[in-house]
Each structure stands twice: as C-alpha cells, then as structure tokens.
Design a protein that fits this description.
Layout: E1 6-9, E2 14-17, H1 22-28, E3 34-37, E4 40-47, E5 51-60, E6 66-73, H2 80-95, E7 100-103, E8 109-115, E9 118-126, E10 130-138
Antiparallel strand pairs: 1-2, 3-4, 4-5, 5-6, 6-10, 7-8, 8-9, 9-10
C-alpha cells in the first residue's frame, strides 16, 4: 500500500488524503464522523484487508489544521495478546515485513514501517495498564 498521498479505506470505499481539512474529510465520508475534540474525529470502517476498527483522524494544528496522523483501534474487548497478533497480521498483509522491530513493553515487540512519507507504528505501551497503539503518521514537509 502506497501511503504517499493518503490512506485507502475498504468500507466505506473512501480515500483519505493527507493534509485534508476537517471539512474536506467530513465531505468524503458517507456518514458523519464522531467529533471527539477539536482536531480529532473518529469513524467506524474496515481497512487493512478486512480489519473492522475505529479510525481516528488527527489534525495539526488542532484548530484549522490538516490531517497528519491516523490512529487505529478496536472496541470489541479482545484480550491484548489476541488483538496484538491480529493487528500485526493485517499490518504485514497490507505493508509487508516491518522495517524495524525492537523489544517493547509488556513483552510485545514494537514494529515500524517506513513507507513513502509516512511511518506506521504498532506497539504496546504501559500507561495506566498495557495499551495497544497502531498509528500512521505523515512526515511534515520542511
């Protein structure tokens, strides 16, 4: 999957371009996203070859900003071990083998992919307990 221009969602079939405004993203989606906070929207979708999830769209700056990060999470309450390896399978199917793998928190590796102008990250981080993170961040042009 080429991330140089943005990210393709399978269902609904929508291409989410980098640097789009909140209004532009809302116009692309067939249903209204959830407005979580200024500069942060979420929507239910399927991407990464059949993975049903919530997609968080982060805009920078938060007010009148442009899309620069996508956050992927699930709400089905799967155990962490099952969720982690299912995400990893879908990420590898979409992006191939990770560019890097290092040891991470809670016994889970941290994976990263460098693709075009974006970085994909998959890891478990300990905050108030173990939290799984799947994010795609676009590099800001200089």
């Amino acid at each position: 999957m080429d991330l140089s221009r943005g990210f393709a969602i399978d269902d609904p079939a929508v291409f989410i371009p980098w640097a789009a405004t909140v209004d532009e993203i809302v116009a692309l989606l067939p249903t209204s996203p959830r407005y979580v906070a200024t500069g942060y929207l979420t929507t239910q979708c399927t991407s990464l070859h059949g993975m049903r999830h919530v997609l968080g769209l982060h805009f920078h700056p938060r007010i009148d900003g442009r899309l620069d990060e996508l956050e992927f999470f699930r709400q089905d309450g799967l155990p962490l071990d099952q969720s982690f390896w299912e995400w990893q399978e879908h990420l590898e199917h979409a992006f191939g083998s990770a560019t890097s793998r290092v040891e991470g928190d809670e016994g889970y590796p941290q994976y990263a992919w460098q693709i075009s102008e974006a970085q994909v990250r998959h890891l478990v981080q300990y905050r108030f307990g173990p939290e799984e993170h799947v994010r795609i961040t676009r590099y800001q042009p200089a």
